[in-house]
Amino acid sequence: MSTEAIAIERLQATGKPWTETVHEWVTTVDHKRIGILYMVYALLFLVIGGVEAMIMRIQLMHSHNNFVSPQVFNRMFTMHGTTMIFFVAVPILLGFANYLVPLMIGAWDMAFPRLNAFSFWLSALGGFLLYFSFLGGSGLYGAGNAPDVGWWAYAPLTAKAFSPGHSSDYWTIAVMLSGFGTVGTAINIIATILCMRCPGMHLGRMPLLAWLNLVMSGMVLITITPLTAAQFMLLVDRYLGGHFFDTQAGGSAVLWMHFFWIFGHPEVYVLILPCFAFVSEIIPVFSRKPIFGYPVMVGATVCIGFVSMSVWAHHMFTIGMNSYANSFFTITTMAVGVPTGIKIFNWLGTMWGGRIQFKTPMLFCIGFLFQFLLAGLTGIMLASAPFDWQLGNSYFVVAHFHYVIVGGILFALFAAFYYWYPKITGRMLSEALGKLHFWLFVIGFHITFDVMHVPGILGMPRRIYTYEPGRGWDTLNLVVSLGALIQTIAILIFVWNLISSYRKGARAGNDPWDAWTLEWSVSSPPPVYNFASLPAVASRRPLWDLKHPEDPDSRYE
Amino acid sequence: MDRPTISGRRRIELTAVYLGCAAAVARANNSTSIFAPASTPAQEIFGLSMFVLAVTGIIFVVVFALLTYAVVKFRGKTTDAAREPAQVYGSTQIELAWTVIPVLIVAVLFLATARVIHAIQDAPKPASAVDVTVIGHQFWWEFRYPKLGIVTANEMHIPLSDPAHPTPTFLKLLSADTDHSFWVPNLAGKTDLIPNRVNEMWMDPHRVGTYLGQCAQYCGTQHAKMLLRVSVDTAADFDAWVRAQQQAAAQDPKVVAGKRVFETTACINCHAVNGTAGDGRFGPDLTHLMSRGTLASGAAGNTTALLRLWIQNPDAIKPGSLMPAMKLNDADLDALVAYLETLR
Amino acid sequence: MSAIANPLIGQPGGWTLPSRGKVAMSCLIIAESAIFTIFVVAYLYYLGKSVTGPTPKQVLETPIFYTFCLLYSSFTIHRAAKLLERGRRVPFLAWWLLTIVLGGLFLFGTGQEWHRLIYERGLTVSTNLFGTTYYSLVGLHASHLIAGLAMLVVVLSFAVRGRVDQEHSARIQVLSMYWHFVDAVWVVVFIVVYVIGR
Fold first, then answer.
1. Distance CA C170, CA B339 (A)
2. Residue A37: exposed, middle, or buried by beta-carbon count in 10 A (0-12, 13-18, 19+)?
3. Element (H, E) at A95
């Protein structure tokens, strides 16, 4: 046997030193490993953000509670929001995009592997910096503290006068860094999709996941950047004596709001589009039918990309815009609900006439459909400006957006985890634990977020560390908090499933779900180079063509 | 065989339970429900919201039913694992239909909404309107009645408005520091108070009573305790209140010692009492402190003990408020409280 | 995946996709344009809203010469890129160097302008709204110019050692896209600050 072969055998027998493994992971430029880094990073922050949520829910269990001080509570909602949006949702979706896009378009890696790694580590630095604020923030109330200005950081609350110390700066710089990383990855995704598709895969034959990530990345280029610009302006105000948002010098607090929400609203579409992608890949496979209306799904996505840039001031209905502005944003907001709602019908059309298999990924997709429907409808209610004058900034809004983010985005993410975990690790997640996770989470989710709409209707504003007895909010808040507890247990079961299945799960093989896109044509996990030779495709479902040579899709497209 | 998701029937049951609870609570006792309007803007919004709820409710029921039907009817059976169902790629007519219908629904909802937007925002201001300037502070409300020469804090009195001879109250909203929002759900939707900006809103209450609300835009540590009380009085009661507020401060010789404490310590830097040296505007005007039911913008009842505690140690009542602990000795504190209690 | 039939056998032209560098640079330009747009919006919104201090009309002097330098540098870099495409390395180097000199001149001009504004006219970033928005917008442009100059100098340092050749032409074109972008931004900034703003 050659010396190399002996050396390899010895390594496999004794294993690599852990330092070498860590070094490999830290210096990797492989899109698959970077994708996993993003996912693990995001899951860690999901747990931290969840702890922050539980602290708030315990404080709000009854009126005039004393579990935490107002200062701590205000930090909690600021950190919870900032963490969940920037350090959970964004990285986990970029992680899946990173892992899946090259595999699904038949490429070896992303267009710029080193930029890929750089973007990840930049974002990771942002997350670290945000949490370092607990030690280094030197806020007014003691040594070192986290930001407490809300995740929108409205001016002039963030001015030096109202936010002395550095806590607001930690928010600004951490989020700015993560923004740079996100833009870097968006550029990478666009270049990969436009320049590295395998032969035969013209744009009309790409999996919907690729389309949705393409549109998402295009949106990122012009939506994250306004926030970056505004944050830069805020730093000029805080450190160079600038007056961008200094109302005493003629500056405008409303200008910050416009800049923030021009980022903030399209951002939520940036977050949901990849989730539409997951659902659009999973529902067809478990209904055993192709996606219903592929061209319209693409068209609706592009439509959403554009229209969503015109709705931002529905977050500002109460700031005193005139009736024409309020009417404009009402109609654009309602209009963007049309292409979004249509997608629900397309997914329904996919399931219609199919043979639905109720495996865990599909269960989460079905939950997604029902919940996203309801979330969209409460969104329509909020789109009506006068209705929003009552419901805005209340717990109704909090319930609405958690319905989208937890009931929509997180459910789709769970579906994606159960669906692609076999491909990533080579092992199946436990179906039994998966179903337990699903049912517990659904129950907890609905107990919390269905009920949460009611305090909003009864006049409970958001971001309050306590509330008055006698308003009828006590019992409702208690119920909401109990549901949160149930969700926590469900998430712990999920994390346990991820960890235990890594060693003990059933071996997955190339294609455990009998699916149709290119990632299922390689081993699980895929080889480091993805494809031994670049595939060539003749339809949207290349593996269907292979499995059904008598009736390939290429005949119909 | 895999069991399907929460069955459609169970979901309907749960929904009904929740809606029932919500409706019951909204009707029962609650003073701050948006579904218990007592003034025209709130009433208009209520009407619109019922219409929007009805339309979205119908959409929900229809799509929910379709989804449930699909999930139940098209579940795969183990017997046909080998065969794939018919591979349908789309249908132009169906997709056209389910695009056109939502567009029409949006058009209808928009028109209904636009009408209410204009009705509320572009309402003309009658000559008989009462003008109140509201200035938001961290963490209290300043109310000035410019035409009546009144300055007060946290508890607003406005007259009942008779639909035949309306006497609405028009508010001008300003801020002295950061963003706030005026929200008394029974009377109107919320409008923000933003520094360097003038906003306006109006209300014309139809029922006498005390309406509660609070700040609805996060403004700092004690945002949660920036509470609002709006007292809607009959015309006669309102006039009586106005006249009482227009008086200068009571001058009771028995509390001269306390008045001296007030005027010679830092109190007058922030507070004003009409007829004394105190003309500070950073904190609430105290001229008629005892006409108010609460202290610290609703954070405490207006009692001797709480007033004493508020002056001595505000953090015990509202930690993070901008009222400093005055660190008076007991004698001065008692005298001061005695003086303040004469300011009716 | 040789089992999937190659649908391109027999098709003329084969399978060609756009160049990664050009796509990525276009995306970067789009993203940066969004950032500049926000600063321009702030500048325009705050025109006439300063509560105190000097107004644009009182202190600004239109930098015609330096603007010309920068705009001409777009032409010179274009020329340099075209020369390199044809493999003419020495002329390429000359025009490349000229581009750097013109860019450096513009930067010098900006520095001179700022020195005059700060020390003679008393306008700083903290003076008033005009000061804040002016220095931020022009400064943002200048910082992008500096980044571009840095990259141009790096290429220059390779080129003087004879290490830049025809095969690098595509990368030079990507870099010159960035340079044209910096120029285009200046056109917008110039119009907003020196034409509309006064």
1. 85
2. buried
3. helix A90-104
B236 and B162 Cβ atoms separated by less than 8 Å: no
The 8 Å CB, 24+ separation contacts for C81-84 are C81/C169, C81/C172, C81/C173, C81/C176, C84/C164, C84/C165, C84/C166, C84/C168, C84/C169, C84/C172
Q: Which residues of B touch A292 (CB under 8 A)?
A: 88-91
CA atoms within 13 A on the CB side of C144: 22
CB B310 within 8 A of CB B323: yes
From the list A248, A270, A43, A291, the residue with the least C-alpha distance to A179 is: A270
- CATH number 1.20.120.80 is the correct assignment for the domain at C20-50+65-196: yes
List, for residues A397-407, the tens digit of each pLDDT value: 999 999 999 99
Q: What ipTM does the predicted assembly reach?
A: 0.94
- Using alpha carbons, select from C136, A251, A446 the residue that is nearest to residue B197: A251
For B95, the closest of A162, A293, A370 (CB atoms) is: A293
What is the reported pLDDT for B298?
Answer: 95
How far is CA A61 from each of CA A37, A55, A113, A474, B30, rounded to the nearest angstrom? 36, 10, 48, 7, 19
> Distance between CA atoms of B62 and A233, rounded to whole angstroms?
48
CA angle A344, A347, A351 (to 5 degrees): 135
What backbone torsions phi and psi does residue A532 show, to the nearest 5 degrees? -65, -45
Residue among B133, C34, C192, B178 nearest A251 (CA): B178
**Chain C, 24-83: which have a CB under 8 Å from a chain A CB?**
24, 27-28, 30-32, 34-35, 37-39, 42, 45-46, 49-52
Q: What is the pLDDT of residues B222-242, one digit of tens each?
A: 999 999 999 999 999 999 999
A197:C17 CB<8 A: yes
Of A194, A196, A250, the CB nearest to C49: A250
pLDDT exceeds 80 at position B157 = yes
**Type and span of the H or E element at B202:** strand B199-203
Mean of the per-residue pLDDT values of chain A: 95
Mean pLDDT over A222-226 rounds to 98
| Domains, chain B, with CATH or none | 8-75+87-121 (1.10.287.90), 130-246 (2.60.40.420), 253-340 (2.60.40.420)
Tokens coding C72: 């001409």
Domain boundaries, chain C: 20-50+65-196
Nearest chain B residue to A331, by CA? B110
Is there a contact between B190 and A69 if contact means CB atoms under 8 Å apart? no
Nearest to A389 among B59, B190, B195 (CB): B190
pLDDT of residue B26: 43
pLDDT at B16 over 60: no
CATH 2.70.70.10 fits A28-555, yes or no: no
pLDDT at B28 (0 to 100):
38
Task: Spell out a b/e string for A409-446, using b for 16 or more CB atoms within 10 Å of the CB, else e.
Answer: bbbbbbbbbbbbbbbbbbbbbbeebbbbbbbbbbbbbb
Q: Model-level pTM?
A: 0.94
How far is the CA of B111 from the CAs of A320, A383, B185, B188, C126, in angstroms? 21, 13, 24, 21, 47
Q: pLDDT digit string (tens) for A452-469?
A: 999 999 999 999 999 999
Distance in Å from the first CA to the final CA of chain B: 76
pLDDT at residue C1, as a whole number: 41
Q: How far is A232 from chain C (nearest CA, A)?
A: 9
